[in-house]
Fold this sequence. Notes:
Blueprint: H1 10-30, H2 35-49, H3 57-88, H4 91-103, H5 108-119, H6 125-143, H7 148-164, H8 169-178, H9 182-211, H10 241-266, H11 275-284, H12 286-301, H13 308-319, H14 323-341, H15 344-352, H16 359-374, H17 377-392, H18 397-412, H19 420-428, H20 433-464
Amino acid sequence: MENLAPAYSTPVLLLIAAAAVGLLLLLVMKVRLHAFIALVLVSLLTALAAGIPVAQVPAALLAGFGTTLGSVALLVGFGVMLGRLLEVTGGAQVLADSLINRFGEARAPFALGVAALIFGFPIFFDAGLVVFLPIILTVARRFGGSVLYYALPAAGAFAAMHAIVPPHPGPVAAGTALGADIGVILLIGVPVAVISWYVGVYLVSRFLGARFDVPVPDLLFGEVNGGEDATGRPAATPPAFATVLGLLLVPLILISFNTVLTTLVTNGAIAEGQLWVEILQLLGNTPVALLISLLVAIAVLGRRNGTLSDTMDVLDKALGPICSIILITGAGGMFGGVLRTSGIGDALTSSLSGLGLPLLLQAFLIATALRVAQGSATVALTTTAGLIATQAAGLDNVHLTLLVVAIAAGSTVLSHVNDSGFWLVSRFFGMDEKTTLKTWTVMETTLGVSAFALAAILWPVAGLL
């Protein structure tokens, strides 16, 4: 559904958005209303208060809900089944043991983060987090302590790569809108993402892990797999490290086909409409890639778990606990979608774009405002780039790249209740809303601020080159 013209002035719309967020937090954290019910109720009330015509309210609600479910439900479903299969066959434990043996116990969180940075190069945030979930939880169970020590470095790594580094859609779209060279964005974006991750995620996660003792959840994968498989029989010999790594590389390679080829087609390096390109893009479409990866895992690991019927029983039980996660994430997308459709984001950006601020700071603040107002990082990236494209005309590729980084930084900060990713992280790691705001939201903000600080430092240096 297309965004509507704002029904009220910008201050009124911002008050409506702030009141909606406040009401949602009140219902969830104080009244203890279920998050799914609260999100749908507040989305309905916000749509009416923001002036969306009554006849269009159902479409506005379903648009955000359906779009989010379309991207999340298949990813979470296939990803959790793959993760459960890795867990019950001992594959996750094998990978965790290999990781720890190479890096040591003290550096386990760092190792998880580095691995996520590598895997996050072609894989989107939500898909990478789902695939890595059993590894994170297995390492956390082995060493104990707050799950945040292990979860935040990995999740933050996927977030950093997704926001800043091509071929992810946000930086590619922003770079294209500004006329920047994607290759330059890649060359500068990778070190910026890595440094931002280390400062804004890894170091911060050590502080947050010490302050918030979040137990390792057993909702998704049950208790520690201790010698028996899911059917109660003695567990078979765990798969080899190379086998487990190979299974994880299957979605990585397939998704790489899609992301890289899509970037090349967008920039005219490969002609559009070629059959071989479209086939590889189909295989690399994230749900399709995860489906293929799951089928390969069933063929390779399923026989270790008894008959095919036993394996299907394991996969069936893996789906039950994620129903709530999927619905809450979809409802979070509904809330963000209503805020976008109401025109709150458009009204906000139009008022900010004329403040006469330095271009780099203006890019960061507009993206931040959009992120806070409507939740979607990708929308914040693409919209901000389009708004400042005229002002950026004539800049060299390095400065254009730094603008992309500043926009990406702004689109990362302050993930909260109108962001579907907020709910995904909250439910995956067993955190309530208050704890998620104090941990995930803080870490996303320090990540974004770190990236912007690097862009601000490099901006005058680029002028000397």
